[in-house]
Amino acid sequence: MPEAEVRGAYDAGDEYAFYKDLKDIMARANADIFIVDNYLNTEFFELYVATVQAGIAFRILTNQLKGNIEAVARKYAASHGIELRSGQDVHDRHIFIDHRCWTVGQSIKDAAKKKPTYMVELSASLVPTMRKIYEDLWAKAAVVVKS
């Protein structure tokens, strides 16, 4: 993924730029996507998940199962691979795509709507450590939906 394609910093009102960057990142996944975000809603599926290619291992870790997110995840799981888990130790927002990781300032659902935010890729040397932290949280989290 060429770095120039991801803006990284988004002013208030730049939600389309954030959407486009995240959608493009997710569409380019080759093996796995692991989303960590406490405040996802059904719009996440409508806007971003449609770009996930068949055969990609797709996981979501949250601690907030608000609205119809579980119901929509179940519908998605009926024909696509996905696993949704909930754990109380989740706080920050991270996007793991293959062997890369981005940290996001606001929840994906609110990114750049009313306040500025960022989506910054971590250096390759930090990714294994960050991934291990969230894989450990994943292992302790309760399975909500699994296809």
Kindly describe this structure.
The model has no long low-confidence stretch (mean pLDDT 92). An 8-stranded mixed β-sheet has the order 1-7-6-5-2-3-4-8, with helices on both faces. It is globular. The longest helix has 14 residues, at 127-140. The protein has a single domain, classed as Endonuclease, Chain A. It has 4 helices and 8 strands; from the N terminus they run E-H-E-H-E-H-E-E-E-E-H-E. It has helices at 15-27, 42-47, 69-77, 127-140; strands at 9-10, 32-36, 57-62, 83-86, 93-97, 100-104, 117-121, 142-146. The termini are far apart. 29% of the residues lie in helices and 25% in strands. It is an alpha+beta fold.
Helix content class: 25-40%
- Described by the principal axes of the CA atoms, the overall outline is globular
Number of domains: 1
| CATH fold descriptor | Endonuclease, Chain A
Known CATH architecture: 2-Layer Sandwich
